[in-house]
Amino acid sequence: MTTSQTLAGKIVLVTGASRGIGYQAALEAARRGAHVIAVARTVGGLEDLDDEIQRFGGSTTLVPLDLREGDGIDRLGAAIFERWGKLDGLVGNAGMLSVLSPVVHFDPKDFEKMMAVNVTANYRLIRSLDLLLRQSEAGRLVFVSSSSAHSARAFWGPYAATKAALEALVKSYAAETGGATAIRANVFHPGAVRTAMRAKAAPGEDPETLPHPSAVAPRLIDMIEPGFTENRMLYDWEKSELRAL
């Protein structure tokens, strides 16, 4: 794990930062010197993150926010502009699984909620933060997705659909910004990791057989480093493979 201050002076926003991969990604960004804007619904988890980051001299801004509140995302963008005038990195990690079910049995309300969190919220983040990322010398975005976007296994249809939609959204945005600006937008597949979402998906699985979120976080944060100049790419952590999105 790198401890060099490669993100010193950078402002990095991490969603879903109160636990799991988001929590560890926020820690990793702070260790590298970034000021972390940590966004999540769970205040207690955010406070735990802040305590841990302060212990090694890092700094955070905590934002308790349900990402389904699009107006709240817009207010967040305005607040970042007023305080810093720019944003250097966005880690779009927040997501939800809901239940595994045949497509025809999936509750419409659950589908709408999952689409709101996994897709619409990330669209609203891109929309709200684009001008701030353009003010950075090297604006970087990375969104956590899943191999389900491509495999679309039985009973995973609605979740797979949201992740496929997210990847299409990022791919288009990357094409729009990659040539004319310093922005780079990419996708990250962590694979099976010891998280609450994974436990929900595979309740009979021994979590100790899976990598801890802290194992994948460094590679995720590598993708918002100024030196990471790839665009419209997907990094598969399990395969250690970078390929075109």
In short:
This protein has 245 residues and is of the alpha/beta class. The chain is built from eight helices and eight strands, in the order βαβαβαβαβααβααββ.
Task: Work out the helix count.
Answer: 8
The main β sheet shows up as: 8 strands, mixed
Low-confidence stretches: none
Radius of gyration: 17 Å
**Structurally, how many domains make up the residues?**
1
Amino-to-carboxy terminus distance: 26 Å
Fold and architecture overview:
- This protein has a single domain (11-189, 216-244), classed as 3-Layer(aba) Sandwich (Rossmann fold), CATH 3.40.50.720.
- Helices cover 44% and strands 16% of the residues.
- The chain contains eight helices and eight strands; from the N terminus they run E-H-E-H-E-H-E-H-E-H-H-E-H-H-E-E.
- It has an eight-stranded mixed β-sheet, with helices on both faces.
- The longest helix has 27 residues, at 108-134.
- The model has no long low-confidence stretch (mean pLDDT 95).
